[in-house]
Write a structure and sequence with these properties.
two-stranded antiparallel ribbon, 2 domains, single chain, 6 strands, mainly alpha, MetI-like fold
Length: 295
Amino acid sequence: MSKSLQTTLIIPGILLFVLFFAMFPAVLTAGSEGVLQIHLGNGLASIRHYLGGLLSGESFQFIAGSTERSFWDQIGACFTVSFGYTAVGGVAGLTAGMLLGVYLAVSRRARWMKRFLELTGILPDFVIVLLLQFLVVYIASETGMVVFKVASASTDDPAVALPLISTILIPANYMIRNVALQMNNAFTEDYIGFAKARGLAKPYIVFFHALPNVLPFVKADLHKFMAILFGNLFIFEYLYNLNGVTLMVFSNAFAYGSYQYSLVVNGLLALLALYAVVYALLRAVVYGWEKVIVR
């Protein structure tokens, strides 16, 4: 199969995957005795109803609380919130991860950082968020000074700093360890020994010999980095009360005991669009690193 044909089939394949993935809550239901039952007809009916309501606009209406809302009226603000935190967190986490990964690989005084990474690496993401919130509350109770907002009180007064710290810290942890590992492997190669024998300065060897050979591994691991970033998105938006895409979808997926299939499909498609935009942004950051340090 040619590459152009594969690219052409990607979008229909993604749409079919979303349509079938979103129907599982409608297909799998609990019976009267708590036994899981499968009703495939419910899922297929949901798909038909969604496709049939595209032209009329019915597929873009959903219930939030007791009010019917338009998906298009809500998604702009929610997408902006999710994009802002993931884009800033992703770029800062990637950049900090690369720089600190280099530092961890070349410095013998970075043992404290290695211990910190080992500690935070075993903690679940929601535990890290709760610990950060507890730390802010503890500082406020002891000193009377509120360093950061622990959650958003409203859309007009959102928490900014603490959610950004969380979105940076967790994916950066992965990138630091990955870059440090690949840098240590690069230092064992013959070309590094040859560069040292030529008397080249250590910073030059690190940034213009070793790091360029680490960047392909960073580029290959971007999807893993993105998976960590997006896997934590709902946790961040829920615990910090951020009005993003995931909070809008999961808070309203079940209204009055019924499953809103159309809202989930539209929300998943919005998240896929968000993933594509943030991934392109991170690829541009890696491309910029390549233009600066690759000779």
